[in-house]
Here is the input.
Amino acid sequence: MSTLLPNSPPNSATPDSALPHVSECDPRDDIRWTADNLKQIDAVCEQFEAAWKAGTPLEIRQLLQQSKSGMETLLFRELLAIDVEYRQRQGQGQSLTVTDLLRSFPEYANIVRLVCSQTLPVVSDDTIPEMLAKHPRYEVTGRLGMGGMGTVFAGRHMVLGRDVAIKVIRNEYLASPAARERFLREAQTAARLQHPNVVTVYDAEATDAGQFLVMEAVSGADLARTVDENGPLPWEAACDAIQQAAAGLEAARQIGLVHRDLSPRNLMLSDDGTVKLLDFGLASLSAGVSDPSLIPGMLVGSVPFMAPEQASDPSASDVRSDLYGLGCVMFFLLTGKPPYAGGTLPEVLEAHRRHPIPDVCEFSSEIPTAVALIVSRLLAKAPAERYQTPSELAEDLDRAIKGESPLPTIKTPEPVVPVNLAKFPRKSGRLFLVMIGILLIATAFAFGFRQLGGKGGQPTVDDSAFVQGRSLLDQRQERQVRLAILKFQDVIARQPKHARAYAALAESYNLLGDYGWEPAMTVFPKAIAAAHRSLELEPDLAEGCLALAFAAATYTCDWDEADRQYRRALEIAPNLPSAHHWYAWYLLQRRRFDEALVEIQRAHELAPENLIILSNVGKILYFGRKYPAAVERHRAALELDQDFQKGHMDLGYTLIELNRIDEALSEFDRAVGISSHDLDVKAARAYALARQGNKEAAQELLKTLQAEAERVGLFVEMAHIYTALGDSDQAIRWLEKAFARKSPGRADVRVDPRLDPLRKDYRFAPLLKTIGIDD
Amino acid sequence: MPSSGSVTAWIAGLKAGEATAAEPLWNRYFSRLVGLARRKLASTSQRLADDEDIALSAFKSLCQGAASGRFPELTDRDNLWPLLVVLTARKSVDLLRSEGRSKRGGNWKSVSEEFEQIASQEPTPEFAVLMNDYCDWLLAQLDPGPREVAVLKLDGCTNQEAASRLGCGIRTIERRLELIRRVWAEAVEREESLSTSREIAR
Here is the structure.
């Protein structure tokens, strides 16, 4: 055993002792490495590492072919070093030895030896651990690969003549007698699991000489390799594979076994098309390692495929965590990527916890919506919102394959837990953040209101689909809003008198139109129709009035109707914070500052803890040019949460108007790094510098912003900067873009102090007119 | 300008005696500079006054390191300290020499000899500001990725710590350290050749 693997944890042998520095790279290499060369290499390496972190490693050979001639040697050395490092960290079921590498890269033999001699085993295929070499029952016939926990050999049971796979578990996993005992116990449980979709465990042994697990030999490849080699699977095939895996998981569930480490590498696709789950119960072994930090990424499963609750508390995982893992695998099969690809390990963990569920349909238009819905349900953040058992999933897959829609969710609704609003990602514009906050409280309030007031007469047998739709809607991402529409339609199909579902449907259409995701002319009429329907069913439904009001203000520009509906919503639900909040924005856009202020303050009184509302009190004061009061409110919001990015930004902008630009800049500095929206901060800095008269620095920042601004929709912000720089042409151009793309900040343009210098421009008023805002 | 050959070659051979000799001298001069920086820089330099920016100041790192006697071996390739010390030492020689040009003149033999002479003088606040700017200038030569590495390394992180802070592999830290050395070397070389040509023009 000790001859096979260096008895050291995977990460402890840092490669630096073995690695030469650039100058020593290859004596024959007479290229003088310039900083530019190294930068190019660094860029390729960055790409390579990002792919590793995303769980979708790239081919070294391919990257080398794309590289500039003369740099291959150095590039190869760097890529190989990264490859080895990541394989050792994450590698599970992957084979890698110096021998293999020498065979794959004969022309770089020197480099392979330099990089790997101290970090990889130099195993040749016939080297077998002593314990197995002299085993009374098993004979080793070959080597299948090396995984995170050890090497897998092909073998034969000599008495029975049966072909087997033997997994030798590395010592560090079973250092203590207790760990060994647990290993044997897990093996016993796993051996009870006999199912065509599970790789059967036959035998296990743990002695001082070492330990191994004997399993059914499967001829085929794992699903990671299958996808790596052939690309994503057609959706029918992916559904079939997941359905088989679900059957295996269901069998496990029935004997109380959880996998905890589902990943494409642990799903074997045998030559006859059977999918088999591998390594049941093995994930718990890593818990036995004395120093878990030695094996990052292996501790609790493969991070790209791991359920959020499992990351925070491995013991909390149950079959629903496995279903999440299976959802990630399904996403991978359909798209070739895990759902939250890219980014560092903590970023991926964070994405599992908080990021909106990505949509498989964005990767291929052929994937039916029913399949997308199944994936999104598997990937639900809260276990209660997922399928509860693998057989539920299997049924829906069956229906999807037959071209039917998934069954409506039937389970008790879970309370929607609002996440930390300040850190919630938004797609574009600040309104996004505002809306999440408001809508979450609106939803919560609507429920509470109904229960307390007892007004709504409808039975609330099954509201989970509605709740799911609401939470999708609150994510304010295009696909999620579209999925929410499907959910609400689903609810309505089953409960045709569900007034709130109609109101929510109306709201969804409003948003599609407001964000410019659908032509206004097609969606707003639908929104209005749905809102009317909700009010027919329940005339006193505040949400219905709010939806009508929103459509009137945004689409028909029927300000009187908007005003009427907002008032009515407030009459019905005088204590609904979101009604006051939206009414305040409406009043602001009508330039009725004083009334807007009264409304927003009322919203704040009703929901004093709501950061978004408090911060919008400041925002409205700012738009009303009451800067010192605005500063006070923004500071109060920041006292509630000093990591409130929007708060720092708004405070900074207000300070600029007070000509306290240095203070503003330091607020912007504080906003950096809180969320992924640092581009907004950059834009704010550029604006501040421009206002300070530091045109050069502002221009410098602008240069780096240009390309990104288009992508993330910072149109109005760009107009601010150009206005401050006195470049009206550019400012107008960006405003035109903002209107063309229906950027969410556009409605504020009319009252925005940052655009004041532009108001004199002859193009400004006609521009506003084009979007129906008339001064 | 002293013609000590290409800076690139000079930095590549950092283990050579020249750099090692500069260390104690630099240490000696630096302890005084640090004290001065603390007293004076706060008022003369906005950047140093601001806590946020201080965290990103290479010069601050240098000051702190010197104050705590943290000068690691100059031959340690995993550390940016020695490089920064040597680059700064060189730069200070340049700066001080141009300050005192009219008084002293003469030919300079090596950085360390030159430094020996300079270290016997008192550092001035203007000099500290210049050094601060120079350190910032060096950091500004780097792209954001390598700059993050540089800042963490100057803050005393090991490669392992820097890797886990940045969520990348250890190899990436090493690769970027190599890149940083090269970028700095080329930047310094460019700058020196520029000032040489300016001198000639004058």
